[in-house]
Amino acid sequence: MKKSQLFPFLVVLTSIIFVARLYYLQVLVHDKTEVALSGSSIKKVYTYPPRGFVFDRNGQLLIANEHTYDVKIVPNEVKPFDTLELCRLLKIDKEYLINRYNKAYVYSPWLPSVFLNQLSKEDYAFLQEKIHKFKGFSVQKKNMRTYPHTSAANVLGYINEVNEELAKKNDYYEQGELIGTAGIEKEYENELRGKKGVSYKLRNRLNKVIGPYKEGIYDTLPMPGKDLKLTIDLELQKYGELLMSGKRGGIVAIEPATGEILALITAPSYDPNLMVGRDKSRNSVILFNDSINKPMFDRGLQAAYSPGSPFKLVQGLIGLQEGVINEYTSFYCHHGFRYGKLPSEFMGCHCGIVGRPIQLQTAIAKSCNSYFSNVFKRIIDKKQNTGEGLNNWTRHLRSFGLGQYLGYDLPTGRKGFIPTSSYYDRYYPSKNWQSSTIISNAIGQGEIVTTPIQLANLTVAIANRGFFYTPHVIKEINQKPHQIEKYSTKRITTVKPEHFKPVIEGMSDVYKTGTAKHVQIKGIDICGKTGTVQNYIRKNGKKFELEDHSIFVAFAPKDNPKIALAVFVENGGYGSMIAAPIASLMIEKYLLGTQSLKYWEQRVINQSLEKEYKKQLNLQLKN
Amino acid sequence: MRSQKINILAQADLTLILIYLFLVIFGWMNIYAAASTESHHEVFDFGTRYGKQIIWIGLGIVISLFLLFIDSYFYEKFAAFIYLGCLLLLVGLFLFGKNINGATSWYSIGGLSIQPTEFAKTGTLLALGRLLNDKQFNFKLAIDKAKAFTIISIPALLITLQPDPGSALVYVSLILLFHREGLHPNILIIGTLAIVLFLTTLVFGYLYVMIVVTILTLCLLWYISKVQKKILRFEWGKIIGIFGVVIGYIYSIYYLFNHVFKQRHRDRFNVLLGLSEDTSDIGYNTYQSIKTIISGGLSGKGYLQGDRTQGKFVPEQDTDYIFSTIGEEWGFLGCCLVVLTFMTLILRIIRLSEKQKSTFSRVYGYGVACVFFFHVLINIAMVIGLFPTIGIPLPFFSYGGSSLWGFTMLLFIFIKLDASKNYIL
User: Fold this and answer.
1) For chain B, what is the mean pLDDT?
2) CB-based contact (8 Å) between B294 and chain A?
3) Taking 60 as the threshold, does the pLDDT of residue A2 lie above it?
4) Using one digit for the tens of pLDDT, what is the confidence trace for B157-187?
5) Of the candidates A499, A561, A556, which has an alpha carbon nearest to the alpha carbon of residue A527?
6) Predicted pLDDT of residue B281
7) Has this prediction a pTM greater than 0.80?
8) Could you give phi then psi for residue A109, rounded to 5 degrees?
9) ∠ CA(B397), CA(B398), CA(B402), 5° rounding?
10) Whose CB has fewer CB within 10 Å in chain A, the N or C terminal residue?
11) d(CA A227, CA B288)
């Protein structure tokens, strides 16, 4: 028979195909996939360090950790046991036990699943002695946040479990781990959480761990979270929250020399302990769904209001800087300011000075609308083009931190709004708008919107005579002063320091002769400015006038100021009646630690605006 | 005529013996890697699979020596009896067999399981050698063709009935032997065409394949008539007939696959052909074995360092999927070494077969090469994901006494025949 070359050919062909396939798999595909450590046969086991503690500026503990204990179960390891005894120890009924066991079995017979969440320390103590009787059950210690005080929930924030979406986006987290979701817990998540330790375990196809991977050479130890010290003064914060009880609004107090936020109060707020523990999900639903009181809404940072009269301060400053007025420039006020020919084109004024020229200092002390309307008109009309004039004005305002995110270290906030020429060009397509068209902005009404913290920061810039530091709540990280450049860089306003004197004198007069005369504090030279902002809601095309918002900004002492603040009380009425006393009380509390205005203190604390809020609610619900 | 006193050890082919020893020892090392666990790694623990395999190997060497010292004439003379004995063992399974994993393929004697399927190959090859050794035998004759096919069909049928269709498929490989011995190549061509059509129909759907076949046929006809200038007028009946059969075949594949096959058959093909991606259930074995091989990389993770092997991710890893252990722990280089060693073994057997002076030895040797080739081809192709899951062992590597002894017998009878070739006239 003749030889056939077919078979040897097939053999050689097969080896070529095999080698090619193996090359493709083991060289080309292998290089593309990181199998070494992420292969499904290797399990990462994490050790979680405790989260860092948080203290206030005086070292008072704000956030601590508490141990809780989860009972876990591995269904396949469970041996017959005394069910009654276990039920008694865990305070559960038999139905729960059977139910949970079945659930765990469905999840995985080999993997531990949670049997009972967050056992109390007392229950754990009893269980611990007897756990050996219950094979397949184990106890896992967990750290939980706990808050010794019920204050400053809006600053502290809370932590949540990482959801699937986030776990996909962020390499560090796995589903079910904890992550700061609000407040400083979110902002300083990386510092507070520390770094989890990883150990790699070999496991078989049933997911059972059968030993360390490569004797643990890739394993890492956890790094504990860092402790934070905040700039918040717990006593002041608590006091502010007390003063705001029964009202809606916010107080922001800042130390002018450093930009440190001393108190950040929003009302109504909530007890941070509601957002931990077994009832967290139930509580959070209640808190987040409360669309009437909005306790999760930080009014100090997120609420945007018209600033009202305090805005006149910066209006005057810009006028001085632009040279359209000087300290002695005076205007007349005839119960208001006429900006057009029509009878309706008239802005009323309550300064009460008729027939006498008014200078800047007096205008501020008496909050004269006419004066600042004139100043605004001059600023805008200084340039040939109205738009240019407005944009120049906007530029000055932005240097005070208005109309933009301030950059503080809390994850919520609003930009507020400062109009520019392009805004009005869009609003008035014929572009025939003039300074008189937008005259409301002169007195902090109109289109301007600011948040309380922006207003407080504006006060800081005035108190410092022309600069401020970005407000922040971080003071120390692990007992060392923070090294964050952003919070130690001076931001200088476009208004030069020499222009501040008449404005500050005017603010001082507010306390001496003006609208805050009744809440003077002996021994402290306070400078302030009241504001009363009209507001209304529209319902079915009709306008309903509501009680005015009550605003007050202040700093003290006049020279070398230690505290500057903005108080905002929704529907509080006249600024001098509610916001001003709050500001005085806060300042005295912080600077002297005393309360000399007993009458006002009681009056403010007891004044509840619930009636007014209820009226509003009914108005909105009514058709 | 025949000397009884040949020095077998001097005449035996050293290459084959060395390859055999290498494969068996390396095979055992991998079984040890795949079968040992963290807590159980005592080498001479005969309760474990790798411990037992040592016994099988020891006995295998005894068997091989025994086979070498039997007179080579014995095999030729008793070929028919050995063949019949094997068939009897296969038939006996239906009466006394033990059912393991759904197939009645085993005799259980005092805790020892023996699979006669593995020995039937040797018997069949010996019988074929005896048949073709007849000087009158001619593959052109229908009766001789029938005889040859009958010899391989009977064991194949018995094994299919166990049911162990994978092992039965081995006999298909003997077509190569028949081709070598003068069977017309048409059968091979038709067979290949049938397989290509089968696979393309499953992947692309019968309509597309039919269209392509029609176009190709028209091109071919055009080529024959216009370029080769052959007159087709009288051939139309034949052409249309063949075309009709092909189209019918394609449609019947579609029909068979979707209406006769059970879901589990379909699943296997679908996973393999990439038509469905399921990593949890049906494609699990193949998925895990490919992952395991990929994780080995160029040079592997090192002996006993394969974490996927240690984690027992690949089912049947010490038997049918033993190659994935090599892939993980020895990497691309180790795999190539094994593939090339097997191919050297097969080519060496082919070459020695061609040199045989007696037809019996040549046919037997060629058959041995066919069987080895088929096992290596199907097993490795399955493990690296080129073929669907067909459970047949990798010679000398897969755990199991019967298979080891079966392959040892196949090889050593050939070594003996080869060593005696100069004495057989």
Assistant:
1) 84
2) yes
3) no
4) 898 888 777 788 889 888 888 888 888 877 7
5) A556
6) 52
7) no
8) -70, -15
9) 110
10) C
11) 46
The pLDDT, as a whole number, for residue A430 is 84
A528, amino acid identity = G
The per-residue pLDDT for range A228-244, each reduced to its tens digit, is 999 999 999 999 999 99
What's the confidence (pLDDT) of residue B2?
47
For residue A569, give both structure tokens.
């009380």
Express each pLDDT in B358-383 by its tens digit.
899 999 999 999 999 999 999 999 89
pLDDT of amino acid B264: 66
Residues of B in contact with A216 (CB under 8 A): none
Residue carrying structure tokens 């040992």: B36
Work out the average pLDDT over B294-313.
82
Mean residue pLDDT across chain A: 87
Chain A residues with CB-CB distance to B373 below 8 A: 7, 10-11, 14
Chain A neighbors of B340, CB-CB under 8 A: 15, 19
First vs last Cα of chain A: how many Å apart?
A: 106
Q: Residue A493: helix, strand or coil by DSSP?
A: coil
Measured between CA atoms, the residue of chain B closest to residue A31 is B297
On whether any CB of chain B is under 8 Å from the CB of A13, the answer is no
CB B36 within 8 A of CB B318: no
**Structural domains in chain A, sorted by start:** 44-75+86-230 (3.90.1310.10), 234-272+296-621 (3.40.710.10)
Consecutive H or E run containing A456: helix A452-463
**A552 and A579 Cβ atoms separated by less than 8 Å:** yes
Domain boundaries defined on chain B: 8-183+280-423, 191-272
User: A41 vs B176: CB contact, 8 Å cut-off?
Assistant: no
SS3 of chain B: the string is CCCCCCCHHHHCCHHHHHHHHHHHHHHHHHHHHHHCCCCCCCCCCCCCHHHHHHHHHHHHHHHHHHHHHCCHHHHHHCHHHHHHHHHHHHHHHHHHCEEECCEEEEEEECCEEECCHHHHHHHHHHHHHHHHHCCCCCCCCHHHHHHHHHHHHHHHHHHHCCCCHHHHHHHHHHHHHHHHCCCCCHHHHHHHHHHHHHHHHHHHCHHHHHHHHHHHHHHHHHHHHHHCCCCCHHHHHHHHHHHHHHHHHHHHHHHHHHHHCCHHHHHHHHHHCCCCCCCCCCCHHHHHHHHHHHHHCCCCCCCCCCHHHHCCCCCCCCCCCHHHHHHHHHHHHHHHHHHHHHHHHHHHHHHHHHHCCCHHHHHHHHHHHHHHHHHHHHHHHHHCCCCCCCCCCCCCCCCCHHHHHHHHHHHHHHHHHHHCHHHCC
Amino acid at B101: N
Quote the strand ranges of A25-146, DSSP E: 42-47, 54-55, 61-73, 113-119, 137-146
